[in-house]
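Two records follow; treat each independently.
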Amino acid sequence: MVEWDIRKLQILRTLRERGTVTATAEALRMTPSAVSQQLTNLAKQVGVPLLEAQGRRVRLTDAARLVLRHAEAVFEQLERADAELAAYVQGEVGEVRVGAFSTAVPALVVPAVRALRAAHPGVVVRVREAEAAEAYELLAAGEVDLALSLAAQAPAVGDPRFTRVPLLADPLDVALPKGHALATAEPLRLADLAAEDWIFGGSGPWSDITRGACEAAGFSPRQGHSAAGWTAILAMVEAGMGVALVPRMAAVRRGGVVMRAVGEERPVRHVVAAVRRGGEDAPVVARALEALRGAAAGQSV
């Protein structure tokens, strides 16, 4: 098997185009003796003569033309590789893998993917729905490039493995049954709902967020029912079984549920993205973060 040398093939190709060793040397900024030496070495490598004398000049043999015919395909592919590599360096092509919690997928990730498709069609996003703890395990293991979570679930700010990128302060609204006495109250304060049954998960981040918001308003919420999915929570609110705090970007509109912003308290949950330390400098990851920031800005409107 011949060990092909691209540089020598380029010299042979240039000789075919320029016609003389001297002209080839000028075009490639080499000395004529260096050109001759490289072509002699190439002929030894392939085991056949590549040049033959023609008066005071040389011409390519049939074997040289055969070699160049196949080399052209190599040069063409290398040109494509150069073009694709340049596009990759500029963040125009590549793949980014995103792990995200459930409500972030439709609210942030899907709009970001749409924006990327329109502006940078060569960037491919692979989405993996995952709870926050799992998303960071995947990120640490190199199975995703970017993880979305709530700030309360994200790695500590000082964790040397990751860089955190704030995306959104998502307002928490109160979900009330349509006929509730406070459904139209102005203004509405969380403290006004201290005597209500509340619906939230028995443990985990949403339980902590609900309890924290209510305690900041001066009371401890009485848990009437436990549920983790927003469809189940809002169905119970619609049935008059209690009230709930619902993040604005997660709310699914139901005819029997009134969503109310809460006065001056304005509780929020903070959504963050995280990448492996230094990963934010990868062009396609930077593109994805840019698109996620745009989607987050749209949610804030």
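The next record belongs to a different protein.
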Amino acid sequence: MEKRKFGRTGQEFPILSFGAQRIVDDHNCTEEEAIQIVNRAIDEGITYFDTAPIYSNGQSEERLGKAFGDRRSKVWVVTKTIDRTRDGSWRSLEASLKRLQTDHVEEWRLHDVRTMEQLDLCFAKNGALRALIEAKEQGIIKHISLSGHTNPNVQLEAIDRFPFDSALVALSAADHFIYSFAHEFLPKANEKGLAIIGMKVIGLGRLAQWYEKALRYTWSLPISTAIIGMESMEQLENNLRVAKSFKPMTDLEKLEFFKEITHMANPDVLRWKAKDWSNKEEWAERL
């Protein structure tokens, strides 16, 4: 698989990374299957694993912790805090570390910061960002990150206020048509040296009909890697197959693809663009 630099961190990762949201009972993935899938991914060179405490009430983190075992040093682990306060975020991290069976994580993210009000809470004197800074100073985390699904202006403001190391943002082909992170955020983030991780690549499964084109579109953007949710060995193998044969889309191919999916730019598909969208809906579906 093609590897790319991960911002200014000095690391590099394959274009295909692992979204661990779906290796849980809620997606009919057993613990045994989850452990097999994760280890197969590592065998194939995937080392970047993204999770969060809110994914199935911590089960995603628990299963990653069990799956890594003595291979922990071979992987880059990312978790998040949805809490907007310093103290709440510290409690969240402590619980995540226990579930992940580790004493540190490589990245810790401010999870789904979608409004300026939420951003201000994170940046307040006793806001969540204070916990991230303290954790990095103590060596419990290595890099500070944030994620955004909804309004790229929020993430643009965030990276102007603080030198984040990375950002996880929605970059499906359908996102191209409204509040696109590809239009303004990617150029600014790349200019600042952030590592950019794409998500929502298959659009909650709504782009499954164009599965390979959807992957190719996101990987053709100037990003470091993209996390793809996988709940079965078959999905992992399919993702590996497409990643290993990846060729960037030409401008003409992108144009033709956009023509095919323009009708998908609607509230049913792009739910994460709505101000009143509830993540709980997404957590029951696909990345």
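Discussion point: The longest strand covers residues 141-148. How would you locate this feature using only the token line?
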